[in-house]
Amino acid sequence: MRTKLLAKEFSVEQVDNVLDVLAHEGLQNDQRFAESYIRFRSRRGFGLRRLLQELEQRGVSASVANQAAAGSDVDFYQVAEAACKKKFSRKAVTILEKSKQVRFMQYRGFYNEEVNQAISMLSDDENI
Description:
Elements: H1 2-7, H2 12-24, H3 30-43, H4 48-57, H5 62-71, H6 76-87, H7 95-107, H8 112-120
Helix pairs in contact: 3-4, 3-5, 4-5, 6-8, 7-8
């Protein structure tokens, strides 16, 4: 929010005052934003690694983002499985296909353990 207000050419003093008032009244809270962001984006099929990076890009400190992630009830193994099943219908037959699946899952922000488990859950059946 600070960055956006400064980009609109408000003075640093004005921005700091407004943010202090909002924080004091409980209307602006990075912790609550981070928790909500993690819930929302994980439902869209993104992993924790990517969500933490996006939160930092949005100006949320790493410690607040990590606290929100630790308090989250999201099971990223299930999120990874759902994202993998949505994108790929079956297990990879060739090394090229497997590397494509792994790359996709890593791009989505999943850790290696989550990627491996999700890919292993894909069906062997080619008639899907």
